[in-house]
Amino acid sequence: MRNEPMGGLTRRGILRTAAAVGATAAPLGLVGAAASPAVAEAGVTLPPATTDVTPFRLSVPDSVLRDLRQRLMATRFPEPETVPDGSQGAQLERVRRLVEHWRARYDWRRVEARLNEFGQFRTRIDGLGIHFLHVRSRHASAVPVVLTHGWPGSVVEFLEVIGPLTDPTAFGGSVADAFHVVVPSLPGFGFSDKPASTGWNVQRIARAWSQLMPRLGYDRWLAQGGDFGAVVTHELAKLGPSGLAGIHLNFFPVFQPPVGDPPTPEELVALDKLQRFFSDGAGFVYEQSTRPQTVGYGLTDSPAGQAAWILEKFVEWTDSDGDPEGVLGIGRLLDDIMLYWLPATAASSARIYWEDARATATADDFKVPIGFTVFPHEIVPTPRVWAERVYKERLVYFNEVARGGHFAAFEQPAIFTEELRRFARLVR
Fold first, then answer.
1. pTM, entire model
2. Active-site residue, selected from the candidate residues 106, 340, 353, 391
3. In which order are the strands placed within the sheet that holds 395-400?
4. CA–CA gap between residue 411 and residue 366 (Å, rounded)
5. Catalytic residue, candidates 167, 177, 227, 364
6. Is the separation of the CB atoms in 164 and 139 below 8 Å?
7. CA–CA gap between residue 238 and residue 211 (Å, rounded)
8. Which of 36, 276, 311, 363 is deepest in the core (most CB within 10 A)?
9. C-alpha–C-alpha distance, residues 379 and 364, integer Å
10. Does residue 406 carry a catalytic annotation?
């Protein structure tokens, strides 16, 4: 297959590649323009963002949590699936258990306190309020890094790596491995503003991140991302803003892989997984890239619907034998779902796909060193040769680890931390 200019996953690219190879590796896209209203639909009040960096303390009203419990109690479930597995989607009994735990035992105040303890902030960039966690290391030699999530992820994916990254000596590491950590919520996600018009594609987000880091006082920094966060980070490496010293990825953000002629055995395995993904696992891509507004109504109104929409992906994409609760814990899984439910971001987060489907791919002109880690249960584990063909001499680090899936930092925080440290040692 010919190696064409590569960018984020696009619907056009999916259809072309699926027809040609039955393949395409995929994260997911974005929206944007002017700032959205200061009060989220769900009742969570967001302070208006300015160009200052303003502390943000989260305090969800009790009335919002009561409304959630009432909605969970009133859930109208469908009949069971007619197959003995998850091939028709999120299974009824699993969703029932998740909903009941959410209603009766889940403690939102636990994660709310933790987010506030780390330090949350908002600032306006390019007309939009951006929410982010910012934790400075106590070590003067620390290197700043911006960690970017994707869909259906959130900033909570990174909560277990912030401590080891910022204070490595407290976790058995070296002072030389210290980072200052910045974790933004993508536009339309979490407690960032929801763009009110089109245009917030991955290139625009990358430019926003290139403004965010200097605004925080950092003149030399790294970037890391998975899923759509990898697409944004990929664009940062092409943009090459002043101060960006390198990027690390755990997802291959290329919609048309550079397949050899003939493909290697490793490539054939990857192409088979791509084929299966687009023939049996990519319905959410087509829906969210074409009709994000329509899917938003049901998910915004029904917490059970929002939970099932996200749960399906954690079941399929984690290295858990189909049991993400066993790897993450049911509470942490619900923490992530809450960052979609509370600010009512079902439609605004889905629009990242809509934006990406309409974006123009940028040429593969990478300006900084690149590191890549393959986690074995990724949607499509990336063959080394693909990374080498795309990144060429810019690829300075490549490794395959033993455990973990699509949500690398969430699933395997220790492995993720060590991989980022190893890459950073090469570019510090």
1. 0.91
2. 353
3. 54-55, 120-125, 128-135, 179-184, 143-148, 221-225, 244-249, 370-374, 395-400
4. 29
5. 227
6. no
7. 15
8. 311
9. 23
10. yes
Taking every pair of Cα atoms in the chain, the longest distance, rounded to a whole number of angstroms, is 61
Rounded alpha-carbon distances, angstroms, from residue 346 to 76, 108, 120, 309: 19, 19, 22, 10
Do β-strands 128-135 and 54-55 pair in parallel, antiparallel, or remain unpaired? unpaired
Instruction: Show the tokens assigned to 306.
Output: 């929002």
Residue 397 CA: distances (Å) to CA of 79, 166, 193, 221, 383: 49, 22, 35, 17, 14
Q: In degrees to the nearest 10, what's the CA dihedral of 249, 254, 259, 264?
A: 30
Q: Which position has the token pair 């944007």?
A: 32
Q: ∠35-409-302 over CA atoms, to 5°?
A: 50
Q: Is the dihedral of CA 394, 397, 398, 401 positive or negative?
A: negative
What are the DSSP calls for 69-83, one per residue? Answer: HHHHHT----PPPSS
> What phi and psi, each to the nearest 5 degrees, are found at residue 82?
-100, 15
Beta carbons of 234 and 387 less than 8 angstroms apart: no
Q: Is 248 a catalytic residue?
A: no
Q: SS3 for 208? A: helix
pLDDT digit of tens for each residue in the chain (428 aa)?
A: 333 333 334 434 443 444 343 333 333 222 333 334 444 445 577 889 999 999 999 999 999 999 999 999 999 999 999 999 999 999 999 999 999 999 999 999 999 999 999 999 999 999 999 999 999 999 999 999 999 999 999 999 999 999 999 999 999 899 999 999 999 999 999 999 999 999 999 999 999 999 999 999 999 999 999 999 999 999 999 999 999 999 999 999 987 899 999 999 999 999 999 999 999 999 999 999 999 999 999 999 999 999 999 999 999 999 999 999 999 999 999 999 999 999 999 999 999 999 999 999 999 999 999 999 999 999 999 999 999 999 999 999 999 999 999 999 999 999 999 999 999 999 98
CA 87 to chain centre: 24
Other CB atoms within 10 A of residue 35 CB = 16
Q: Which tokens belong to 30?
A: 């974005």
Domains along the sequence of the chain with CATH: 11-79+88-427 (3.40.50.1820)
Catalytic, 365? Answer: no
Alpha-carbon 212 to chain mean position: 18
Closest CA to 276 of 360, 380, 401: 380
